[in-house]
Amino acid sequence: MKTFIIRISSNKDSVRSAEQTLQTAKDVGYTEPIEIFEAIKPNDWKQILPYPNTFNNYARPDNVGACFASHYLLWKKCVELDEPILILEHDAIFKQNIPDIEFDMCVNFGRPSYIRPNEMVYDEPKDGLDIVNQVNYLGHHAYAIKPNAAKIFCEDVKKRTLSANDVWMDKATYPWLEEYRPFPIIADTDFSTVQLMLPDENPLKQKYDEVTDVNSPHYDYLMKHFSHLLKAPQSERHIDV
């Protein structure tokens, strides 16, 4: 399966992190060819996605648009190649090799990298291949996609209002979205070119503090499935804006 890493060549953190992705893929025995895909710059996304969007709802709207545009171009690449591809963001870290499975249309291999406090689902997930547990992928640092799914996404870009693309790829619209657990790939949370830690007075930050508090009825669930985020330093607890 052809594999692409989205990398920003002008960003030293992105370059360093993409090199880490390549090394960890090698370490776990991933032997598929991996190509670097140059990310769309924040100043250039409007030429690619001249469609209605809610990017201004985010702290870094042009970064959100650029991220969506990069994934969109890889969806088009998938359609052109007429074969499944694996899409990796520059912060993907392989912990295990990709399992040899037959997925339906689109499957996430990347562990969630943030908590969306207003849209969390607290259903117990299953190991193996299953429909995505949350309402979307909560970050999509590593996912495989087939041409049929990529074609649907590309067509829908022109029909649906755009948002952050991992939010836009939601289970309500695409009930065939899958994930594989335990996740073989995690995200390096040392930095993010899109997400920010919000100030304490922000309502979303306050909701985050509420659901992650030790006295919250959801705390045990979050500790079981999102402990990598709850235990991370405050600077690395990215919250979707």
Question: How would you explain this protein's 3D organization?
Answer:
The protein has 241 residues and is α/β, with parallel strands linked by helices. 32% of the residues lie in helices and 16% in strands. It has one domain: Spore Coat Polysaccharide Biosynthesis Protein SpsA, Chain A (Alpha-Beta Complex). It is built from 7 helices and 9 strands, in the order βαβααβββββααββαα. The strands form 2 sheets. The protein has a 7-stranded mixed beta sheet, with helices on both faces. A two-stranded antiparallel sheet has the order 4-9. The chain is globular, with a radius of gyration of 17 Å. It starts with a strand and ends in an 11-residue tail after the last helix.
Number of strands: 9
What's the arrangement of strands in the largest beta sheet? 2-1-3-7-5-8-6
Gross CATH architecture: Alpha-Beta Complex
Enter the CATH topology name.
Spore Coat Polysaccharide Biosynthesis Protein SpsA, Chain A
Précis, in short:
The protein is globular, with a radius of gyration of 17 Å. It has 7 helices and 9 strands. Helices cover 32% and strands 16% of the residues.
Any chance you could write out the topology, listing elements then pairs?
Blueprint: E1 2-7, H1 12-27, E2 34-38, H2 45-48, H3 61-81, E3 85-89, E4 92-94, E5 106-108, E6 128-131, E7 142-145, H4 147-157, H5 165-168, E8 177-181, E9 185-187, H6 203-212, H7 219-230
Parallel strand pairs: 1-2, 1-3, 5-8
Antiparallel strand pairs: 3-7, 4-9, 5-7, 6-8
Helix pairs in contact: 3-4
